[in-house]
Structures are given as structure tokens and as C-alpha cells.
Automatic annotation (TrEMBL):
The keyword Ion transport does not apply. InterPro entries: Znf_DskA_TraR (IPR000962). This is Conjugal transfer protein TraR. Residues 85-113 form the Zinc finger DksA/TraR C4-type domain.
């Protein structure tokens, strides 16, 4: 386990696992919306087809974001398993407990994140 006594690791792990399950369920549910749009003009009018293409693009983007979030969750769970959770990837200092409570997947402390965002 991590040497951090100021964070509730079990609670954060549960949040991450619940979010992972939520993402996977939503991804499965929206699979049909991401399928290619039929281009048969007899079956669908031009404007309806444009709406369908736009909806497809929105669902594809939502899925891309879910995949990114899922990757972050998996990396975080691995850090937890490897006893590396709660410390900044860049400087090694402890990440503030409030920051981890807000976003359990954050790999950087406030100072390093601020530096990265200004680069």
C-alpha cells in the first residue's frame, strides 16, 4: 500500500472502479449510434442523413473521450497496485489529498501541472 495516510485509498479505488464500470456500460449502450450512416437517399432524406452523420460524429467523439478516461483510470489503478499512487510523476512530492479527492486520476501535483499547462 501507499505510504500516504492522509488519503482513503480504498474509497478512491472504489470510485475509480465504479466509474470504469459506468464508462464500459455506456460505451456498450451507445455502440449502435457509432455505426456508419446509411447513404441510401431513398431510405433517408438529405437533411435527415446530415443529422445522422452529425449524431454519429458526436457519439464517436464521446467514445474517444470515454476511452481516454478509461485509460487514465487503468493507469491510476496500476499505480495503486504498484504502491506509487499519490505522488507526482514529475517531482515525486505528495499530491494534495484534496486534489486527489477531486480527480483521483491526476498524476501531477499542482505545481507541476501548472508548469505543464504554461509550456
Amino acid at each position: 500500500m501507499t505510504d500516504r495516510t492522509d488519503i482513503d485509498l480504498a474509497k478512491l479505488r472504489t470510485r475509480l472502479e465504479e466509474r470504469r464500470a459506468e464508462i464500459l456500460a455506456h460505451s456498450t449502450h451507445s455502440e449502435d449510434y457509432r455505426k456508419p450512416v446509411e447513404l441510401d437517399q431513398q431510405a433517408v432524406g438529405r437533411l435527415s442523413r446530415m443529422d445522422a452523420l452529425q449524431n454519429q460524429e458526436m457519439h464517436l467523439e464521446q467514445e474517444r473521450r470515454r476511452v481516454v478516461e478509461l485509460e487514465q483510470i487503468e493507469k491510476t489503478l496500476k499505480r495503486m497496485d504498484d504502491d506509487q499512487y499519490g505522488h507526482c510523476h514529475n517531482c515525486g512530492e505528495p499530491i494534495a489529498a484534496k486534489r486527489l479527492e477531486f480527480d483521483p486520476t491526476t498524476p501531477l501535483c499542482v505545481d507541476c501541472a501548472d508548469h505543464v499547462s504554461h509550456v
